[in-house]
Amino acid sequence: MTAKGHVSLHGIHKTFGTFEALKGIDLDIQPVEFFALLGPSGSGKTTTLRILAGLEAPDDGRIMIDGNDVTGTQPGERDVAMVFQNYALYPHMTLAANIGFPLKMDGVAKNKIPDLVRQAAARVKIDHLLHRRPGQLSGGQQQRCALARAIVRQPRLFLLDEPLSNLDAQLRLETRVELKKLQRSLDVTTVYVTHDQEEAMTIADRMAVFLDGDIVQVGTPDEVFNRPLSVHVAAFIGSPPMNLFAGQLEQGAVKVGDYEIKLPKSPDHAAGDVTVGVRPSHIRLSDHGLPARLYLSENLGESMLLNFLVDDQLVKVRLPEVRRFAENETTALSFEPEHIHLFDQKTGLRIGS
Ligand SMILES: Nc1ncnc2c1ncn2[C@@H]1O[C@H](COP(=O)(O)OP(=O)(O)OP(=O)(O)O)[C@@H](O)[C@H]1O
Ligand SMILES: [Mg+2]
Fold first, then answer.
1. Could you say which ligand is closest to the alpha carbon of residue 38?
2. Does ligand 1 come within 6 angstroms of the Cβ of 44?
């Protein structure tokens, strides 16, 4: 038997009035994959999830689940469970009734429901709260209840829309780990919407980066982070994202202002204007490179984030240790040549490997 939960989208368009929310996206998600939809606010993530769930119909395109075209089917026919950002729990029902609701709708025998509910609640550690109503729970507990309601039956597909966004930072980190463990043990294809890239990077097997209603890159967190395919992805991924400089590609080297960096491998690309990308952790304070003046240093406890001015451009440098800096201190910034990213200045597309 082939694993369940293969999902694909083909040429999905969606407009709201005159606004084009999705511009023809394609996506292929493998069975049991933990797949993140990552992108800034308004980029089309929730719309994609709602289209997958059947809550929204695309104007154009097809949705396939396990080889079946489900484009025209109702949510109930798709065998998916969705967790909404606002949990959408029934306030007048106990947790037990909330969690058991999908089973009741599925026509599961009444005497089987309490055990299934208890098991699902135990997996997210709220089995001691089953008699309470949502209003008597903390945000984190409500969020777990919504998860329990999703996992109480084994759907083909979990759709999670920013399920951790209402939790405080600490609880968010804890729940993230649990969610990943839970998904592994359940073996259900999961599509997870977030605008938090750290969350996507840590939790997902693969991700799609959304920008303005388009998918601009699909890959493992590693691929997206280490090999952004365009300057747009480069400018979005990483916290803070990579520094981008106007530069000139020459034979075996790239120049930013008067600073020339020999490239370890000459890219197969015509000489000319390029955008040079360097992550804050790949810049060194040095005695050669770009002349820079310290604008502000931020102490992050175990490391430092230094904001330099190079001419008028703010450049971020991450320092692995903490030390003192004088205000307005001047230095030079040099780039690690093997960690330089190049993009065509006109098309914004990545140059070389
Ligand atoms: N029902 C609707 N009517 C009109 N416009 C809508 C509707 N739903 C979504 N949109 C618009 O479509 C775009 C994409 O919305 P969507 O909710 O998919 O974004 P998102 O990526 O989930 O953003 P966020 O991170 O803020 O949740 C937005 O500009 C939004 O305003
Ligand atoms: Mg959304």
1. 1
2. yes
Both 127 and 211 in a single domain? yes
Cα distances (Å, whole numbers) of residue 255 to 102, 155, 259, 290? 61, 54, 6, 10
Tell the burial category of 39 from Cβ atoms under 10 Å away from its Cβ (0-12, 13-18, 19+): buried
Cβ atoms of 281 and 306 within 8 Å: the answer is no
- The string of pLDDT tens digits covering residues 60-109 is 999 999 999 999 999 888 989 988 877 789 999 999 999 999 999 889 99
Whether 168 and 280 map to the same domain: the answer is: no
Is residue 194 in contact with ligand 1, taking CB distance under 6 Å?
no
2 lies in a domain?
no
| CA atoms of 327 and 31, how far apart (whole Å) | 54
For the entire predicted model, the pTM comes to 0.90
Residues 65 and 157 in one domain: yes
Residues 77 and 165 in one domain: yes
Q: Which domain holds residue 105?
A: 7-229
